[in-house]
Design a protein that fits this description.
Radius of gyration: 28 Å
Distance between the termini: 20 Å
Number of helices: 12
Strand content: 25-35%
Structural class: alpha+beta
Largest sheet: 8 strands, mixed
Shape: globular
């Protein structure tokens, strides 16, 4: 039985099927995936009307498979019964069934990929629900084993492989449940810039598009031109929120920066010492909560302090930090209280990730370090209400100026890139059965069969220099999709969009939500864990779109009551 919890934010919604799901700790990826499936009409009805019972594979070798399928059916019923309108469901029991089959999804420490858990659930349902189908081929009967899940979701791809030496061609077929299509390589990178001028503690914020072929020196020049900053003013650029944070080498290619970097650009004064001795160190701010069960929270904006080799002491560092804090708080708080009441502490972080506490009055010269961390002590500052609120709201303060137009890719661009012929790399050769040599073959992929429900994954995540990064460009996708151009089918098949799964943020701090069109009232709703709200069609296309869910127009859909 799925436990129910009432959630006041959903009380105004009285549509059957619009039900929130509690986040059990980094389980938004699972919640968003379930909302995609629960809003898939014929698939959902298959479980609501207990049709699945006639298809259960009783001799399934996978232990706990039947329990998982029954648990999924119970979950669908809990979402779609009228009594649960306005409630929020606890998925603890269903997640336990899922994790028995896939232990990698256990625990709460990591944010998993929503597409991966969506694919896993579909595959498990497919394996556990089979039926025999008799087909007539070449005047003879053939009995094949299929599943309703295949009928709903499975399409087929044809791969044509051509030898570049002897032109021998072979073809193979591959089924898919979720169609993964790549995003075309972008000629530009888009970066959010936080610009701090004249010792400002609040940034000027904007976005710039920069060619991947440019250097960071050219990026700084673009920022200077956009904000009318003279060349006599010195600027340093840092990638935000790095544990070890050094200024970016201006000779570095823009292509080497992280895909989703927020770049902090600081104006610095003229050096008083040689460049070898004087440098600027980044100070990251973190709020440490009194409750140990709450993870520390990044607050405010990183700022710079000056460091001079063989001269700077811990006392000097604390003095520079106080100057910056007094600028932000406008001398509202006596800096002596910061020391006397241990409102914050400062640690130096070194290249080996070791950390050392910098005591306030220490006049001993400190070793050269890479980054400074300022830890706000929640327990000590709770009695200063204005200070506490100011620290927590600091990062919400900024000045905005016009950004460069956003880079836009269409879904058509993605399909063209998907079907484009590619040549295998040297490390991934193919052995030709005709000339019997390993060749860098030409490979082309084409869709030859389409399912009732077409799930399209936009491949936003890829590896760059051994790092997994996210492509954040906007993909403009249609509400009505025609795919004849990209298939070998003689007739066109038209699809309607009915759900979108989004991934917000980056690889370290991501969040998944779903927007879906309820098939009873034809209205779009956003499902953000426990919270459900109605949205307009104009809000559906977003740069965070990750999985697009389409249904064939000619398919007879479930309507009315069950």
């Amino acid at each position: 039985m799925i436990r129910q919890f009432f959630h006041s934010k959903n009380k105004s919604i009285q549509t059957i099927g619009v039900v929130g799901l509690i986040n059990l700790g980094n389980t938004c990826y699972l919640n968003a995936s379930i909302q995609c499936l629960s809003n898939t009409p014929l698939f959902c009805r298959f479980f609501l009307t207990d049709q699945f019972e006639n298809h259960l594979r009783r001799s399934n070798p996978v232990k706990d498979s039947e329990k998982f399928i029954r648990g999924f059916a119970t979950l669908m019923r809990s979402i779609w019964i009228e009594d649960n309108v306005g409630t929020t469901l606890d998925l603890s029991e269903f997640k336990e069934l899922l994790c028995r089959l896939a232990p990698e999804f256990a625990g709460q420490e990591y944010q998993h990929d929503s597409q991966e858990v969506l694919s896993f659930m579909i595959d498990q349902l497919n394996e556990g629900l089979k039926y025999k189908k008799t087909e007539i081929k070449d005047n003879s009967q053939m009995v094949t084993t299929k599943s309703m899940i295949q009928d709903f979701f499975q399409g087929k791809l044809k791969n044509r492989i051509t030898c570049p030496k002897c032109d021998y061609t072979t073809e193979n077929m591959n089924p898919f449940m979720i169609l993964s299509i790549p995003l075309p390589p972008a000629g530009d990178r888009t970066f959010q810039i936080n610009l701090f001028l004249n010792n400002s503690t609040i940034p000027t914020q904007f976005k710039v598009n920069v060619s991947c072929r440019r250097t960071c020196f050219e990026l700084i020049h673009i920022i200077r031109e956009k904000c009318q900053i003279g060349s006599q003013r010195n600027l340093l650029i840092f990638e935000s929120q790095k544990i070890i944070n050094q200024p970016i080498d201006v000779g570095k290619s823009v292509d080497q920066l992280s895909q989703n970097s927020v770049l902090n650009v600081y104006e610095i004064g003229k050096p008083e010492y040689s460049q070898k001795r004087e440098r600027h160190i980044c100070v990251n701010q973190t709020l440490v909560f009194a409750s140990k069960s709450k993870a520390p929270l990044s607050v405010g904006y990183p700022f710079l302090v000056r460091f001079v080799s063989n001269l700077t002491t811990a006392q000097n560092i604390h003095e520079e930090i106080r100057k910056h804090l007094n600028l932000h708080f406008k001398n509202e708080f006596d800096s002596k209280k910061f020391d006397e009441e241990h409102i914050y502490s400062v640690h130096a972080t070194y290249m080996d990730n070791s950390r050392m506490l910098l005591k306030t009055q220490t006049t001993e010269i400190i070793d050269e370090n890479e980054t400074l961390s300022l830890f706000w002590n929640e327990k000590a500052i709770l009695k200063y209400e204005n200070l506490y609120r100011n620290i927590k709201d600091w990062s919400k303060q900024f000045k905005k100026i016009d950004s460069d137009p956003q880079n836009i890719v269409t879904l058509t661009d993605c399909f063209r890139y998907f079907e484009k012929e590619e040549i295998l790399g040297e490390s991934n050769t193919w052995k030709c059965s005709s000339c019997t040599e390993n060749q860098q073959a030409k490979v082309q992929t084409q869709i030859v069969n389409l399912p009732i429900y077409l799930f399209i994954q936009l491949k936003r995540f890829h590896y760059v220099n051994f790092r997994r990064e996210k492509i954040t460009c906007l993909v403009d996708f249609p509400f009505e999709l025609q795919l004849k151009t990209y298939t070998s089918l003689k007739h066109d098949i038209t699809y309607d969009l009915y759900a979108v799964l989004y991934h917000e943020g980056d690889m370290s701090e991501g969040h998944s939500v779903t927007c879906a069109k309820n098939f009873l009232d034809d209205k779009w709703y956003m499902f953000d864990d426990s919270t459900c709200s109605q949205v307009s069609e104009s809000e559906i296309v977003s740069e965070n779109a990750y999985v697009l869910c389409y249904k064939q127009q000619q398919t007879a859909e479930a309507s009315g009551t069950f």
